Amino acid sequence: MRRRSAVVFLALSLLTACGVLPGDDEQRTVTVWLMKDSASDVFLKRFTKDFERKHTDLRLDIRIQEWTGIGDKVSKALQAHDGTGPDVIEVGNTQVAQYVDEGGLLDLTLESMRDWGMDHWLPGLAEPARFLGHQYGIPWYAANRVVIYRKDLFARAGINKPPKTRDQWLADTEKLDSGQQQGIYLPGQDWYTLAGLIWDEGGELAEESAAGSGRWTGTLDTPAALRAMDFYRRLQALGDGPKDADEDHPPLAGVFAKGNVAQAVAVPGLAQAIVSENPDLKDDLGYFPVPGRTAGKPGAVFTGGSDLVVPERTDDRAGAVAVISALVGAKWDTELAQAMDYVPNKTTLASVVADDAGVAAMAAGAAQGRATPASPQWGAVEANNPIKDYMTAVLTGADPATEAKRASRRLTEALTDDIG
Predict the structure, then answer these.
(1) Can you give the pLDDT of all 420 residues of the chain as single tens digits?
(2) SS3 417
(3) Cα separation of 206 and 225, whole Å?
């Protein structure tokens, strides 16, 4: 943001009245906070040059931020009164609820409906950025999990094409799980994958008693969620994934690179790390969307990614809206997706990544994508995640219904901690 002093404003007015155009002094600076590694330097330079050529009255000041500690930094910026904060901020899609709750975000519903094609946005980016029917976050790009598989091991097992349904996925994985070969490496605490299965069954992680009430109830003990956990249990048993750890312990790429794993659930970019550790696998890796209950559409998946928001205290709403219009429009959103191996923000743009097998599989799944409950307290859930504990308990033999009720109570407590 940049506020003109009264003296400068008066000087500009006099110059304009006299027919003198002061050039650069007429430009307004739009400050944009983007996260590290969200876009390449090449992309940002090209975007800035094109944007400023088309908007001669605006100058972009793009400042790269670190993810570590960004929550507190954004919260402080939203409450700042000195006019020096950002006009546009990139935030994680699951963070928008927190900032809406704190106040200070601009309502962008009108522009979303009129100009930005919100009917075609990926649901996993759009839904968590919406509150009581108002749109505060604008989808920018997405990423989600797919199944990375060994094409050679599939062929050796007589499997000619990737499965389209969950039942077929389970049957194929049973064929692949033979001897020292793991049918799938699925850590016991991969709650993102479990969440997708729950959504696919028609369940939820938690439900709000009334829109905007802030009163949430954990729902891991519903029949739908229990069916999802049972499928996860059967699938996880067809490999040697640890029952008490997530995909980072040990790192998934290193496990896959050892050569005896037929499948893993991960973002496509993991393939680069696998090949880096085992170059012999370069031509053997393939991708398919997480299968759904029926062959008609892929399974639901957790969608990660970023939305763009505008602080309510911006002194240049028009400039901020112009930046977002450009970034989320088809031209630059397509170029970003192709440059960074992302899924574009609209289902209608999926074809632009069709030539990349991994991203194409990701885009197919993203159409069924979801995000975590839009509660500002969700961060407290992940800090001491009861879903992970629940999964480990079930996988090590505890009663699923009992453990699901216990985990649901913990979710409820974490999500309503600040409600009186």
Answers:
(1) 544 333 333 333 333 333 334 444 589 999 999 999 999 999 999 999 999 999 999 999 999 999 999 999 999 999 887 778 999 999 999 999 999 988 899 999 999 999 999 999 999 999 999 998 999 999 999 999 999 999 999 999 999 999 999 999 999 999 999 999 999 999 999 999 999 999 999 999 999 998 888 899 999 999 999 999 999 999 999 999 999 999 999 999 999 999 999 999 999 999 999 999 999 999 999 999 999 999 999 999 999 999 999 999 999 999 999 999 999 999 999 999 999 999 999 999 999 999 999 999 999 999 999 999 999 999 889 999 999 999 999 999 999 999 999 999 999 999 986 544
(2) coil
(3) 10
Distance between CA atoms of 298 and 31, rounded to whole angstroms?
39
Phi, psi dihedral angles at 136 (to 5 degrees): -110, -30
Whether the CB-CB separation of 218 and 415 falls below 8 Å is answered with yes
C-alpha neighbours within 13 Å on the C-beta side of residue 332: 21
Contact 412, 217 (CB under 8 A): yes
Q: Which of 84, 85, 63 is nearest to 74 (CA)?
A: 85
- At 391, list the tokens: 């999964």
Written as six digits, the tokens of 20 are 């003198």
E strand or H helix that includes residue 97: helix 96-102
Instruction: List the structure tokens of 166.
Output: 């969950």
**Cβ-based neighbours of 42, under 8 Å, separated by 6 or more:** 339
Which of 247, 173, 237, 241 minimizes the C-alpha distance to 397?
237
DSSP character for 121? B
CA 228, CA 396: separation in Å to the nearest integer?
17
CB neighbours of residue 319 within 10 Å: 26
Exposed, middle or buried by CB within 10 Å (0-12, 13-18, 19+), for 324?
Answer: buried
